[in-house]
Amino acid sequence: MSETSAVKNVLGKALRPCGTTPVTGFFRDGFCHTCRDDVGIHSVCAEVTDSFLKFSKAMGNDLSTPRPEFDFQGLKPGDRWCLCADRWLEAYHAGVAPPVVLAATNEATLKIIPLAYLQAHACG
Q1: Sequence-separated (6 or more) residues with CB below 8 Å from residue 109
Q2: Please, what is the angle between helix 50-58 and helix 85-94, to 10°?
Q3: Residue 45: beta bridge partners?
Q4: Contacts of residue 6, Cβ cutoff 8 Å, sequence gap at least 6
Q5: Which of 84, 87, 83 is nearest to 55 (CA)?
Q6: What does the alpha-carbon distance between residue 47 and residue 97 come to, in Å, rounded to a whole number?
Q7: Phi/psi of residue 32, each to 5°?
Q8: Contact 49, 21 (CB under 8 A)
Q9: Residue 82 φ then ψ, to 5°
Q10: What is the Cα–Cα distance from 29 to 14, expressed in whole angstroms?
Q11: Secondary structure of 14-65 as H, E, C letters
Q12: 56 vs 29: CA distance, rounded Å
């Protein structure tokens, strides 16, 4: 799933890429695509922060430690990553939600997170 013409972002426009360094997305194609098999709904394009990475690790998902067996170098603050919508919302309620790239955040996110929350954390 590399073509995004039919997939929209939370602003109703064509979904933009989230990140390629490291390559993100459920399909590892750089986009926050989602599908029925994506139980976590990896739809929020975020620029991760140190406080979010610590929060995620405390919640049981360590995104900062390299995992070479999965070809995962670990994230550092400033990296863009497709986050699970539920985890971003948990971080929002905990006061540690990372900034969101609206143009690269999949419209499926709006089933879980109100647009106003995302807009309040928008970045370029």
Answers
A1: 10, 41, 43, 44, 85, 118
A2: 110
A3: 82
A4: none
A5: 87
A6: 10
A7: -90, 55
A8: no
A9: -80, 105
A10: 16
A11: ECCCCCECCECCCCCCCCCCCCCCCCCCEEEEEECCHHHHHHHHHCCCCCCC
A12: 23
How many angstroms separate the Cα of 109 from the Cα of each of 25, 64, 67, 70? 14, 23, 27, 26
Query: Which residues of the chain, if any, have pLDDT below 70?
Result: 1-5, 124
Distance in Å from the first CA to the final CA of the chain: 24
CA distance 42 to 19: 13
CA dihedral 92, 23, 17, 37 (to 10 degrees): -70
Tokens of 14: 């064509």
pLDDT at residue number 71: 81
Residue 2, pLDDT score: 41
